[in-house]
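Field reference: sequence -> structure
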Amino acid sequence: MSRTVAIIQARTGSTRLPGKVLMPLLGKPILTRVVDRTRRAALVDEVVVATTALPSDDAIERLATEAGWAIVRGSEADLVDRYRAAARAHEAEIVVRITSDCPLIDPGLIDDVVREIDMSGADYASNTLEPRTYPRGLDVEAFTAAALERAWAEDTDPASREHATPYIYRHPEIFRLARVAGSEDNSSHRWCVDTPEDFELVRRIYESLGSDRFDWREALAVVRAHPDWAGLNAGIVQKQVGRG
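Structure field:
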């Protein structure tokens, strides 16, 4: 199988919840939870944190250094360039894109998406292509280093480049796309952390499960056992454009 590198984009400058990636879940920062869970994916060879070169993100580099993680720093706004730099530095053939505001990211789903791109021969595979079936916050994208290089060379839209992958999935005439879907529609659940309300929901899930050693179905069972929790962040509108 191709060398697969998961790159987790992270920064402290979130507009709606500044510093969210360093907020604690069961005593460890959200970013640590994301890295630890991503590293459990069997088909990922290496995990790299990609942050910005801004002084405000020195805290992320310190956390990475203390934890022994690989880290690359690059452009704040141009995520295509940041991902390309990280992919090149770590000799990725397949890149897995993970965002640092997803502390429920599931190793098994990461493997599902990586397996799909490997088996189908696609340039890009994801569990976020419409119609999506998984809760928001379990988002996994995988794409070839060649597709990333082409996006880096050809994408001239700054708004697209700050999202890393739109040039790829918006051009099916250029890239072969593969959709990974679940057996039922759970897309109404919101498990990413972009607001205080999001964090409260995720905090409750973690505290109910007592560790980060759970899969997404266990998290779903907890949420279904507490139907009132869904109201915590039900009114949050997902940002359509953003940076990690």
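Note: The two ends are 28 Å apart (CA to CA).
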